[in-house]
Each structure stands twice: as structure tokens, then as C-alpha cells.
Amino acid sequence: xxxxxxxxxxxxxxxxxxxxxxxxxxxxxxxxxxxxxxxxxxxxxxxxxxxxxxxxxxxxxxxxxxxxxxxxxxxxxxxxxxxxxxxxxxxxxxxxxxxxxxxxxxxxxxxxxxxxxxxxxxxxxxxxxxxxxxxxxxxxxxxxxxxxxxxxxxxxxxxxxxxxxxxxxxxxxxxxxxxxxxxxxxxxxxxxxxxxxxxxxxxxxxxxxxxxxxxxxxxxxxxxxxxxxxxxxxxxxxxxxxxxxxxxxxxxxxxxxxxxxxxxxxxxxxxxxxxxxxxxxxxxxxxxxxxxxxxxxxxxxxxxxxxxxxxxxxxxxxxxxxxxxxxxxxxxxxxxxxxxxxxxxxxxxx
Length: 350
Known about the structure:
The chain has helices at 26-36, 52-61, 80-88, 105-108, 124-136, 162-167, 173-179, 196-210, 220-228, 234-248, 261-264, 279-288, 299-320, 325-332, 336-345; strands at residues 42-45, 70-74, 113-117, 138-140, 147-149, 153-158, 182-185, 217-218, 253-254. It is α/β, with parallel strands linked by helices. The chain is globular, with a radius of gyration of 21 Å. The two termini are 38 Å apart. Mean pLDDT is 84; it is low at 1-13, 269-277 and 291-299.
């Protein structure tokens, strides 16, 4: 994606690689600029597809470490043993298949930034080792006794409320507080409806160029449908639909007929559709079930809403894809290992 100038003011969007100038993103832009030149750990929170990786990239590019590497690791894509080796490296013979010494991602990120996406999916055992790196800036490769020291800034991301995860014993509380020095919450697309025209225009340009097409106009009815849709998959879902529309268009205009039935408000025969479960009604329903929000300032209810929306979205997509996980993961914009974990978590496995 094209990036913007780094000379913009702290309060003025956009920042590199991020599209949207609506009010919902003002805090994201302001905090990102303010914290970028520090060495503080940053925790990016938000639903899947809200752009956490883009903010992590912006934090690195705006930092004093921008001449160093930016290393990205999706913690949800690997098993515990593979992830440990990926992060910290290993020595020859430390496990089956370790035929040579190998440096890990933390070493590769020395003098730069490491981005740990889906950190909520890490095991409690691995979290102990991550805590040590954050506190001491040192570790040992798998199977080795020699200590490696690194100078690296850590940015982590989670699509779950890590505080609730820590309270439930699924995430180490001490690691949570080490990561949560500066939290940045990325709002879902349904809270950024003013940004949809700008995002659509951007993706039209990107995919028209990639596919050697010329789809540069947006039909009013199509834009209205997109602004009314709930967007459970957030910006990533919007991006996918615009790309498909560009490929399928017969003219230079994105028309409403090019959008999926769910966006157009047409009930699909293959599923009930999360579109009908509006976020406000979900909030009302959860409150009616007796969930107290006053003491937590809504954080507990927010986590439950996100989980409910995510579960129903995954269930619907799995039904549409005839329970083929590879196809469903592609449609959701996540990898297959992450989908498998979520199916197990939400008890959706057949």
C-alpha cells in the first residue's frame, strides 16, 4: 500500500500505510505518533482485520529504529515447539530436523522492532520465556546454554481482551503488564463508517492497477450498502470484496450487483448471517443476561460481544464453505492453524 509523508503533524492523519481520516481513528493516529519514537512496548488491540499490522509497521517507520529491521511473527500460525524455535532459534541436534544452528526472529530483529501478532495464542510456558526477553533482553536458543542478548523493541497484538484472558488464567498477568505499557485500540470498521468511501477508493486504485483494469467510480447504491453493512471481517473483508468487484466488473463502475448478498442485505440460503445480529442488540442482550458493565467500564461486555460476533461469523463461513477449513480460512483472511484453534475454542468442530 502507498505510504504518506512522515512530516504530517501529530494530530493530522494519515500516518504511513493507513487509510482513513474519520474521527474514530484520531486517537490511533495521535498515540501512534506520540509513542513511536520511544522504546516502550506497545500492545495493539482490536478485532481481526482492523489493521494492527499496519499500525505496527507505522510505529517502526516513525521510530528511531527505522534503519533497523522490522520482523513480523504470527504466533497463531505455529505450534508451541515450532514457535519457540522460530522466536529464539536452535542449535544443531536440539530436536528432530535441527540439522544446523539457526538464529531466531529476536536475533534477526536486533537494533530494530519485532511484531508479535496473535500473542494471545501463545502457551503459558512460552509466555515465561517472552517475559524474560522483555525484562532482561536475553534468552538462550533451543538446546543451547549460551545466552544471547538483543536490543529490540516489542510490539504485540491481540484480537482478544488480554486483561480478561489474564483474569481467566489463559495469559500470564505479569507478561500482560509488561506488554501493556502503551495500549492502542483499533476500532472496528462498523465504528469507522466515514472512512469507507476513502478505503473503497484506495482499494479500487490498488486492484485496478494490479489487474490492469479501470474501475474508478462507485455507484451511490453500492456505497450506501457498504456503509450500512456490519463488516464482521472489518477492513480485510472490505478489501476482499473490492478486489472481487474489480475483477468481475464489466465497466468502470463498482455497482451494487458486484457486492455479495450479505452486503446488499439479501438473506443467504446457506446461513443466518451475522448481519442481523447488530452490535447494539448484542450489547443489549448481554446486559439483559446480567453482565455488569459499570465496574469494568464496558471492557467485559466488549470482549463478550467480540467473541460472539467472531463465533457466529466463523460458524456461518464454515457452513458456506461446507466445513472445508482451508477454504474457510482463506475467506476469513486468517491462516488455517488459527482457524483450527478458534473452531476448538468456540466448540465448532464437527
